[in-house]
């Protein structure tokens, strides 16, 4: 007897299949219209304040309620973003490009039909940004509501329940708006940890019967450990019974953030192309400009905080309020990194005495290069600074000087050079960052080896959008105090 779930009601699945995208189309339409109204309002306010134009911008109803929304929704539909399963930050990245294309298209159409003169440049810039922000927020909350009411959730069966499947399950659990609801797993080995949490539907040789009985149209093959012949055979056995069949290839460790695929039809071969984005001079300039512009704004905003914290540190303990030490920078060159002092001046002596009386903490120090449970070197104000990562605020000066970036690898100590090993070449391709992938992935809860892998992955997969995403994620991590010691 095959262990399968009861077949879901076809009418409910089909209703969800068509109704969820329909709701998203309606909410996108309303968001675009609101974006137009908002852009007109701010455009008129800006030009009036600057004295550039006394005319109030008006848009014909056919353009307001039909042309502009249809162009926008058409681009979104063409990108298959009404059914495609994506993490929110992936969706936002794609939407940002779509917003750019839509703006270019509107300008092009305006010139084509000779209505270019009335087009306001201020309005177009505002519409580009405002529509992107409104649709992003609208999609975020609409999907959350749909999930809450049991919609926007495609049932999916995962073939394989090993480490790869664990990564998928964790991702679907973390961001439910992706829209995959795991029905169960098909796996030969019954002692897999995932099978204690999810339903074990059966084994590989029963895959077709299980999928037909469950009537699920989305299946993921998370079996990179299978031999090529076995994987191909399993693929062809399952494909006739599903609408979408996804394969998770064994490319772990490969920089896949900027991956492109090509197909050789006659040879039936798949080519995977990756490029090192940070080797391009244009991307290096783009990253630096981003750091200068955003860093300057951040510096002006936090200047009063820097002054207050400087006074508090000075009052709390003897010594300079700043801790200035050498770190490994771009191309392996050393630079001076600025931080607020969180330890007593004789911290090395304190640490040595602590290990003599508490040798059990030596292993923790060697593994994480941190004392996570108790650290006698840290001052009272220092504990608060570390809890909210405020000790790193002076690094904004390093960003403006060019020795660091807002986002990048961890600024490693010179004494850690030997431990970094073969990762050194990749990590030193760019400047270290105030925040980075390691910080939003667990911070001090990650081992030293784990940090190196994350930093290496970041450099190989760099993109400006990834930096923006990591900055926003950092805010959430800091507020939650996740991994802060």
TrEMBL record:
GO terms for biological process: polysaccharide biosynthetic process. The keyword Endoplasmic reticulum does not apply. The chain crosses the membrane at residues 21-42, 62-82, 94-113, 119-141, 289-313. One of its GO terms (cellular component) is plasma membrane. Keywords: Cell membrane, Membrane, Transferase, Transmembrane, Transmembrane helix. InterPro entries: Bact_transf, EPS_sugar_tfrase, NAD(P)-bd_dom_sf, Undecaprenyl-P_galact_Ptfrase. It is a multi-pass membrane protein. Signal peptide: none annotated. The keyword Calcium does not apply. SUPFAM superfamilies: NAD(P)-binding Rossmann-fold domains (SSF51735). It is found in: Cell membrane; Membrane. GO terms for molecular function: phosphotransferase activity, for other substituted phosphate groups. Residues 287-480 form the Bacterial sugar transferase domain. Belongs to the bacterial sugar transferase family. This is Undecaprenyl-phosphate galactose phosphotransferase.
């Amino acid at each position: 007897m095959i262990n399968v779930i009861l077949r879901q009601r076809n009418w409910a699945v089909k209703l969800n299949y068509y109704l969820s995208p329909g709701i998203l189309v309606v909410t996108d339409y309303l968001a675009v219209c609101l974006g137009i109204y908002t852009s007109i309002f701010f455009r008129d306010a800006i030009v009036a304040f600057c004295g550039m134009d006394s005319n109030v911008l008006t848009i014909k109803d056919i353009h307001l309620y039909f042309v502009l929304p249809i162009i926008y929704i058409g681009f979104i539909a063409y990108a298959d973003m009404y059914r495609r399963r994506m993490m929110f930050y992936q969706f936002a990245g794609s939407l940002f490009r779509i917003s750019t294309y839509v703006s270019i298209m509107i300008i092009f159409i305006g010139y084509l039909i000779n209505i270019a003169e009335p087009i306001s440049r201020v309005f177009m810039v505002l519409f580009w940004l405002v529509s992107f922000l409104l649709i992003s927020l609208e999609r975020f909350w609409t999907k959350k509501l749909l999930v809450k009411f049991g919609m926007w959730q495609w049932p999916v069966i995962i073939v394989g329940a090993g480490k790869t499947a664990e990564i998928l399950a964790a991702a679907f659990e973390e961001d439910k708006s992706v829209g995959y609801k795991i029905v169960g797993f098909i796996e030969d080995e019954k002692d897999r940890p995932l099978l204690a949490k999810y339903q074990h539907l059966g084994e590989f040789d029963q895959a077709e019967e299980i999928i037909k009985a469950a009537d699920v149209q989305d299946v993921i093959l998370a079996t990179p450990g299978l031999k090529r012949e076995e994987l191909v055979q399993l693929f062809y056995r399952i494909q006739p019974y599903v609408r979408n069949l996804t394969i998770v290839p064994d490319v772990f460790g490969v920089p896949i953030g900027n991956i492109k695929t090509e197909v050789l039809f006659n040879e039936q071969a798949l080519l995977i192309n990756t490029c090192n984005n940070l080797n391009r001079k244009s991307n290096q300039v783009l990253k630096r400009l981003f750091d200068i512009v955003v860093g300057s704004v951040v510096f002006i905003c936090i200047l009063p905080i820097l002054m207050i914290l400087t006074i508090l540190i000075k009052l709390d303990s003897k010594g300079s309020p700043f801790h200035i030490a050498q770190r490994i920078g771009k191309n392996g060159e050393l630079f001076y990194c600025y931080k607020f002092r969180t330890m007593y001046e004789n911290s090395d002596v304190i640490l040595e005495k602590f290990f003599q009386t508490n040798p059990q903490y030596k292993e923790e120090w060697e593994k994480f290069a941190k004392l996570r449970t108790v650290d006698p070197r840290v001052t009272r104000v220092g504990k608060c600074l570390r809890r909210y990562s405020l000790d790193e605020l002076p690094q904004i000066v390093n960003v403006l000087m060019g020795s660091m970036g807002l986002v990048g690898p961890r600024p490693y100590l010179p004494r850690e050079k030997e431990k970094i090993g073969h990762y050194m070449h990749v990590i030193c391709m760019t400047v270290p960052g105030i925040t980075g992938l390691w910080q939003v992935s667990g911070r001090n809860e990650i081992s030293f080896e784990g940090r190196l892998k994350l930093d290496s992955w970041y450099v190989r997969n760099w993109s400006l959008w990834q930096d923006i995403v990591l900055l926003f994620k950092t805010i959430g991590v800091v507020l939650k105090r996740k991994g802060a010691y």
